[in-house]
């Protein structure tokens, strides 16, 4: 009896899907962009410095909202413009990662 199989192809597809799943650079960048956009919309604008100082930093490990203005943390503690906005946007940000997972696994069949 001669049996053939595609175990090698399946293994290759699994390895490719795993590599794509592990590479979070693009979804971290997109999640950071969405987060920054939302925070910017809620940033107090008394002088404009706080809004001008905000940015998103993303790398393969995650993303962060950073603000160069020294008093940003104090304003956020009083108003929640950054932390509360991030909490409110958790589902939208999680959607970026859900889409990444779906796209990474779509090629696997």
How would you describe the overall organization of this protein?
- With 109 residues, this protein is mainly α.
- It has one domain.
- Helix content is 64%, strand content 11%.
- It has a two-stranded antiparallel sheet with strand order 1-2.
- A hairpin with a 2-residue loop joins strand 1 and strand 2.
Write the layout of secondary structure elements.
Layout: H1 7-22, H2 25-42, H3 49-53, E1 54-59, E2 62-67, H4 72-79, H5 83-88, H6 90-106
Antiparallel strand pairs: 1-2
Helix pairs in contact: 1-6, 2-6
Q: Strand arrangement, largest sheet?
A: 1-2
**Strand percentage:** 5-15%
Q: What average pLDDT do the residues reach?
A: 90
- Count of helices? 6
Distance between the termini: 27 Å
* Helix percentage: 55-70%
Provide tags for this entry.
about 110 residues, about 65% helix, two-stranded antiparallel ribbon, mainly alpha, 6 helices
Could you provide a short overview of the structure?
With 109 residues, the protein is mainly alpha-helical.
